[in-house]
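debug: dumping io for the single-chain case to check the tokenizer round-trip. Nothing else runs in this session.
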Amino acid sequence: MKSMLVLLLVALSGSVMAQTVASPVIYTGKVGSAPVQVAFDYLKDRVANEYGIGEYRELLIQQKSASAENTKKVSLALQMQGLLDDAVKAQRYQFTLNFNDELNVWLIDSVKQDWQCRRGASKGWTQKPC
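debug: decoded output
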């Protein structure tokens, strides 16, 4: 009985580990939505208010496929410049998305948010808000 319980615990812990090793899906898009639409749906009020008005001068969006043959895996960068915030020069979100053939939707696999500060030693992007 004791050895059976140990085997059961090992089997359970193995299945739990298998579930946690798989990369989680951050957001699932809607059928028919393009990667840019999925990113906008995910960001919701972080890019614009409830009326669709954003507090930035310029919005840059760049989408790249992994290759010409593999258009079902894309990276997408959304950058807001000319923000009303005195400390922040720009804010950026970087996504990786994959198209799921079973569900016929785009899935967001990863999102990274960073900032470019107006002042400070670093002219590059930082993971910490300015």
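debug: round-trip ok. The longest strand covers residues 88-100.
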